[in-house]
Specification:
This protein has 250 residues and is mainly α. The protein has nine helices and five strands. The strands form two sheets. A three-stranded mixed beta sheet has the order 4-3-5. The protein binds zinc ion.
């Protein structure tokens, strides 16, 4: 889970449209008048095409986006078309959260709260720093073994594998075994590719950033590249943005 930046209300959702669609829902609660392309597109932009809770991609064939009402429509029916109450979620998270009433028992709001303040990380699972974090883990089932923990483990394993391979090449480069321009460019592209896996737009980015920045192999590769003067500002920038979403270990 990472913090998302708020997006402006779509211009199509004027106060009049909002009122008319809300009235439509109140008249027939089997309808879903929030299912509009202009709403869904803006929500997907906000979350980089990911679920706002678990960070799975929701544009893949097997998954699709559901418009999630942070304050559940069952208890807050006049807010069903309120822009700030709408979030993009996967079916799994939406079903898990169900009718949970966030007005009575709040969970992390991915726009209003920074998950890093409420969650910490160990062995591909989220743990709580606060009551808000604890409730979020429970309500959305953020440590679902089959659907989430295994995926995080795969991503962490691939980052480790890439760093392990790159470290050998970087050590050879430092020793002067192969210092060609082609080799130098390969190293630069490789470390940037690894860092790009830990950016907010990537699937399970909180996990990727946490694994990468806490991996001793990464620190070793970085220090060798710095010593060889091929660590550049572009890598620094990528690292800074990964650091902004990485969770604390404990
Ligand atoms: Zn989800």
């Amino acid at each position: 889970m990472i913090r998302l930046a708020a997006r402006p209300c779509p211009p199509e959702l004027t106060p009049e449209v909002q009122a008319a669609l809300t009235a439509k829902y109140l008249a027939d609660k089997t309808t879903a008048p929030w299912e509009k392309a202009y709403i869904e597109q803006e929500l997907l932009l906000m979350s980089h095409d990911k679920c706002c809770y678990c960070e799975c991609h929701i544009r893949e064939e097997s998954k699709y986006m559901e418009v999630e009402h942070f304050f559940a429509k069952r208890w807050h029916e006049t807010q069903v078309l309120e822009w700030t109450n709408l979030l993009p979620a996967c079916k799994r998270c939406n079903v898990r959260k169900s009718d949970h009433d966030c007005a009575i028992e709040p969970i992390i709001h991915p726009v209003q709260n920074d998950p890093r303040d409420h969650l910490k990380w160990r062995a591909y699972r989220f743990y709580d720093k606060t009551q808000l974090g604890k409730r979020t883990i429970d309500v959305v089932d953020l440590n679902d073994l089959e659907r989430l923990v295994k995926k995080r483990f795969e991503i962490g394993g691939e980052i480790y594998r890439q760093l392990d391979l790159l470290e050998d090449i970087v050590i050879d480069f430092q020793k002067g075994a192969n210092t060609s321009i082609q080799r130098k460019n390969k190293i630069i592209n490789w470390i940037k590719t690894i860092l790009k896996e830990a950016q907010p737009q990537k699937e399970y980015a909180a996990t990727a950033a946490t694994v990468l920045l806490n991996e001793p192999l990464y620190q070793n590769v970085k220090s060798i590249l710095q010593a060889c003067q091929i660590w550049g500002t572009e890598m620094d920038d990528l690292e800074i943005s990964a650091r902004a979403i990485a969770l604390d270990l404990f």
